[in-house]
């Protein structure tokens, strides 16, 4: 669905499907150059990163392996709980592997800072982070992010995998959620 299908729920559209695909193509190219000649495993963080992973994996012009993790850091609202728990671990043994964690958004940074040190402790050849969106003003933990799609203001956004209470994930565009939806 697009913005027209959720009419009053968005304050604005931040990025259209077209802009998102273009930016993901650029990120994929950058990663491809950096990992030239190396095997690469991209790890998507469920469930939000499903769309980014699907589009990024297909933007590559080389082989790439995909695996998934599920962690919980959010309840059902719009604030981070700060508690990270593994709900689904990797199926892959990453020792000696080059890993890029793919996520859709970094808010407080709690999830990814925890996750990258967790994966780093498994003796991989390398671990880097790629995120489509980042909210610099919301950051509470330093996270070393190599690939960023866009920095955005500290507002709650939905669409393209990003949800509010499991809705809006299938919105093609990314938009700012209107406060009346969650207040
Ligand atoms: P962090 O740990 O605060 O960096 O955020 C972890 C997760 O919270 C992200 O991967 C998202 O799943 C979710 N999240 C953070 N900000 C937003 C938002 O603006 N919209 C929807 N989900 C968000
Ligand atoms: Mg996420």
Automatic annotation (TrEMBL):
Its cofactor is Mg(2+). Its EC number is 2.4.2.8. Pfam families: Pribosyltran. Keywords: Cytoplasm, Glycosyltransferase, Magnesium, Metal-binding, Nucleotide-binding, Purine salvage, Transferase. It is found in: Cytoplasm. Pathway: Purine metabolism; GMP biosynthesis via salvage pathway; GMP from guanine: step 1/1; Purine metabolism; IMP biosynthesis via salvage pathway; IMP from hypoxanthine: step 1/1. It comes from the Bacteria. Residues 18-165 form the Phosphoribosyltransferase domain. One of its GO terms (cellular component) is cytosol. Its main location: cytoplasm. InterPro entries: HGPRT, Hxn_phspho_trans, PRTase-like, PRTase_dom. One of its GO terms (biological process) is purine ribonucleoside salvage. GO terms for molecular function: guanine phosphoribosyltransferase activity; hypoxanthine phosphoribosyltransferase activity; magnesium ion binding; nucleotide binding. It catalyses: GMP + diphosphate = guanine + 5-phospho-alpha-D-ribose 1-diphosphate; IMP + diphosphate = hypoxanthine + 5-phospho-alpha-D-ribose 1-diphosphate. Belongs to the purine/pyrimidine phosphoribosyltransferase family. NCBIfam families: HGPRTase (TIGR01203). This is Hypoxanthine phosphoribosyltransferase. It comes from Nocardioides psychrotolerans.
